[in-house]
Amino acid sequence: MNQAFLVVKIVELAKVGGALPAEEAISRIAALIGGLDANSTTYARDMEALLQIGATVWSLNSGPDGAYDPTWLPPRLRLRKNP
Predict the structure, then answer these.
(1) Engineering a disulfide at 29: which of 20, 54, 56, 57 sits with its beta carbon 3.0 to 4.6 angstroms away?
(2) What is the pLDDT of residues 36-68, one digit of tens each?
(3) In terms of pTM, does the model score above 0.85?
């Protein structure tokens, strides 16, 4: 598919409210990475690209200091304490 067309589709989807919450986007990226074929000739390149996208989503979601705070986790990934 044409890359310019895909960029336009991404922007259009975001404008109509089709974006995922950041935590879900990160989970989906992790699932995509987990589903990559480790024997593929593009495995390393694809994994690196997806990790960079995940890091970007994390940074945008966590604010100016969140990405650098080693204790910060998205709420969905935090362990729930039993009352």
Answers:
(1) 54
(2) 999 999 999 999 999 999 988 888 877 666 556
(3) no
